[in-house]
Amino acid sequence: MLETPIVPYRLEDSTPAALYDRRPRRWAPLSEGHVDGDKIICPSHGMEFNAGGYCTKSPTQTMMPKTAQIPAFEEREAGAFVWIWMGAKEAIDCDSPRVDYQIYPDWSFIH
């Protein structure tokens, strides 16, 4: 999206989440890994990232450096759509009305 690799997934409570699709340092694509609960597990070294983009576990370290994080993107679900905000979280207009997907009668949806 917008020339940024994104890995969308769902948390255990089915809330949508999205992270930058590259691990810090060696840039392994997280989309090739797997979801375990609310975390995405990196395919190459088993690093775990939570929905906030923070590395919570690395098999080779006991303490995670603050730099071991990736961008997390805000997502909202409305009807059949999941909307992603690619900008700064503080710039989201939470007071704007939700998009009514029923205004697109010619669109078809797969559930």
List keywords for this structure.
111 residues, 4-stranded antiparallel β-sheet, 0% helix
How many β-strand runs? 8
Alpha carbon gyration radius: 16 Å
Structural class: mainly beta
> What is the number of helices?
0
Distance between the termini: 22 Å
* Fraction in beta strands: 25-35%
Which descriptor suits the 3D outline?
A: elongated
Annotate the secondary structure layout.
Elements: E1 6-10, E2 16-20, E3 34-36, E4 39-41, E5 48-49, E6 55-57, E7 72-78, E8 81-85
What does this structure look like?
- This protein has 111 residues and is an all-beta fold.
- It is 0% helix and 30% strand.
Care to give the gist of this entry?
This protein has 111 residues and is mainly β. It has no helices and eight strands. It starts with 5 loop residues before the first strand and ends in a 26-residue tail after the last strand.
